[in-house]
Amino acid sequence: MFAAQNGYNEIVQILINQGAYINATNVYGQTCLILGALYGHNDIVETLINHGSDVNATDDNGFTSLMAAAQNGHKDVVQTLLQHGADIRAKTSYGTSSITLAAFNGHEDVVQTLIEHGADIQAVDDYALYIASLKGDDHEVQKLLEDGYSVNLTYNSETPLHAAAKAGKKSTVKLLLDHSADVSAKNDKDY
Predict the structure, then answer these.
(1) Is 135 exposed, middle or buried, given 0-12, 13-18 or 19+ CB atoms closer than 10 A?
(2) pLDDT at 124 (0 to 100)
(3) What is the DSSP letter of 62?
(4) Rounded distance between C-alpha atoms, residue 39 and residue 16, angstroms
């Protein structure tokens, strides 16, 4: 695992040749492939896949190697995984997809690659205003509202106003209220 995580492809190959179990997991359920993808080691990802690593294996939270690569903006790894059958529609146990992780972290080139391979852009669209509000990105919030996003659209039962308020983003709260955000909207916990 350390070799995959730290980018030592030759050591990964030696360990595989000596019979190391390729789909072994750490205490979080992460495989060597997930770790290689997480840290952007495309050569290791290719080596592991070529030796039978499960491209759609998940960790304890349903996180796949594609999600790991997308979240961290490793476009080359994303492409490799997609070429080898990574499930572009997979979601974590929290309902988050690869495209949402890429979008949330600002990796536009990865988002575009995922779209080109059939990812559901609506998954990002529904999440965009919520995430911009959570981050306190007033410029993006304003742009999304001008583009017609509903100020009261919910994500996991919370509105953008919930997101901005819980993140302490005062200017974003004011911006959302200026656009008629519903101050009485409650999430599934009655907040």
Answers:
(1) middle
(2) 66
(3) S
(4) 20
The rounded distance, in Å, linking the Cα atoms of 86 and 64 is 9
Name the residue type at position 185.
A
Residue 135 has φ and ψ, to the nearest 5°, of -80, -15
| Amino acid at position 165, single letter | A
Query: CA-to-CA distance for 29 and 49, rounded, in angstroms?
Result: 18
Name the pLDDT band for 125 (thresholds 50, 70, 90): low
Residue 83: count of CB within 10 angstroms of its CB: 12
pTM for the predicted model, two decimal places? 0.74
* pLDDT tens digits, one per residue of 30-81: 999 999 999 999 999 999 999 999 999 999 999 999 999 999 999 999 999 9
The label of the residue with tokens 């990105």 reads 137
Give the pair of three-digit tokens for residue 108. 């536009």
Q: Which is more confident, 53 or 115?
A: 53
CA distance 120 to 98: 10
* DSSP-based three-state secondary structure for 155: strand
Residue that the structure tokens 């919370």 belong to: 158
The full set of domains in the chain, from first to last, is 1-119 (1.25.40.20), 120-191 (1.25.40.20)
Average per-residue pLDDT in the chain?
91
> Measured between alpha carbons, how far is 184 from 172 in angstroms, rounded to an integer?
17
Residues 58, 67: Cα–Cα separation, whole Å:
10
